[in-house]
Amino acid sequence: MSRIGNKVVPIPDGVKISVADREITVEGKLGKLAWTHQPSIAVAVDPAAGEVRVSRLDEERLSRALHGLTRALIQNMVIGVSQGYEKRLEIQGVGYLAAVQGDVLQLRVGFANEVHKKIPSGLEVKCPDQTHISIKGIDKQQVGQFAAEVRSVRKPEPYKGKGVRYEGEQIRRKAGKTAK
């Protein structure tokens, strides 16, 4: 029995949800998202009560697995079009910096050349200063994926902590070889 799948998804004011032939469309003040769910899952929108209910049509293993997933993805879409998602990164290291030039994120993180990452459409990337990066968007998966790609350019190393990290991320530090 899926506990997450059985919970209803509340629809906030200003958000419209429509289901047509397995295609779920969520529209809000920040944009519009669409997703096609599996045929073994049923999605019912109740605009009078302001909620979305997700149920499975059979008790197959795949259907049980997709029940909670479908509900969570719909919840993420509703939050994305109403509030949006944001990931913040910080850069630590002497001479390490970031800048946004058009639709390209430029990173200087200790390599011989600058690293250029193309910013996907639908995302808003800002650098309030040279050591912080803010990634905003309505698609949770896209925001998290681009933040992970930027972080993977130069992951924080355990000895000095230099690299790109999520804001507030704790890096496990190691003692150097001179420590006893």
How would you characterize this protein structure?
Helices cover 22% and strands 36% of the residues. The protein has 3 helices and 13 strands; from the N terminus they run H-E-E-E-E-E-E-H-E-E-E-E-E-E-H-E. The protein folds into 2 domains: 3-82, Outer Surface Protein A, domain 3 (Alpha-Beta Complex), CATH 3.90.930; 85-166, Ribosomal protein L6 (Outer Surface Protein A, domain 3), CATH 3.90.930.12. With 180 residues, the chain is an alpha+beta fold.
Features:
elongated; four-stranded antiparallel beta sheet; three-stranded antiparallel beta sheet; Outer Surface Protein A, domain 3; 2 domains; alpha+beta
In brief:
By secondary structure, the chain is α+β, with helices and mostly antiparallel strands. It has 3 helices and 13 strands, in the order H-E-E-E-E-E-E-H-E-E-E-E-E-E-H-E.
Radius of gyration from CA coordinates: 21 Å
List the uncertain runs. Answer: none
Q: How would you classify the helix and strand content by structural class?
A: alpha+beta
Reported for the largest beta sheet, the result is: 4 strands, antiparallel
The pLDDT mean sits at 93
CATH superfamily of the largest domain: Ribosomal protein L6
Question: What is the count of DSSP helices, taking H or I runs of 4+ residues?
Answer: 3
Question: What is the architecture of the largest domain at the second tier of CATH?
Answer: Alpha-Beta Complex
Beta-strand segment tally: 13
Into which percent range does the helicity of residues fall? 10-25%
In the CATH scheme, the class of the largest domain would be Alpha Beta
